[in-house]
From TrEMBL:
<dbReference type="GO" id="GO:0005840">
    <property type="term" value="C:ribosome"/>
</dbReference>
<keyword id="KW-0687">Ribonucleoprotein</keyword>
<dbReference type="GO" id="GO:1990904">
    <property type="term" value="C:ribonucleoprotein complex"/>
</dbReference>
<dbReference type="GO" id="GO:0006412">
    <property type="term" value="P:translation"/>
</dbReference>
<keyword id="KW-0689">Ribosomal protein</keyword>
<comment type="similarity">
    <text>Belongs to the universal ribosomal protein uL29 family.</text>
</comment>
<dbReference type="Pfam" id="PF00831">
    <property type="entry name" value="Ribosomal_L29"/>
</dbReference>
<dbReference type="GO" id="GO:0003735">
    <property type="term" value="F:structural constituent of ribosome"/>
</dbReference>
<dbReference type="InterPro" id="IPR001854">
    <property type="entry name" value="Ribosomal_uL29"/>
</dbReference>
<protein>
    <recommendedName>
        <fullName>Large ribosomal subunit protein uL29</fullName>
    </recommendedName>
</protein>
<dbReference type="InterPro" id="IPR036049">
    <property type="entry name" value="Ribosomal_uL29_sf"/>
</dbReference>
Length: 67
């Protein structure tokens, strides 16, 4: 997910997407622990997407607090 796509989402959509990504990360970790997954770099991509979503949420909370 690109930053431009994340910025276009509403705050509610960000929270929902963050929950989905965390669930996906958990599934990937379990699948990788049981047997090696086909593309282990997906774990890294999902982690980075979660970080991007958290960054945007934090930025919006800071803007709301300053107003």
């Amino acid at each position: 997910m690109k930053n431009s796509e994340i910025i276009e989402l509403s705050t509610e959509e960000l929270v929902a997407k963050l929950g989905e990504e965390k669930a996906q990360l958990t599934k990937l970790k379990f699948a990788h622990a049981v047997s090696a997954i086909e593309n282990p770099t997906r774990i890294t991509k999902v982690r980075k997407d979660i970080a991007r979503l958290n960054t945007e949420l934090t930025k919006r909370k800071a803007e709301a607090a300053s107003n």
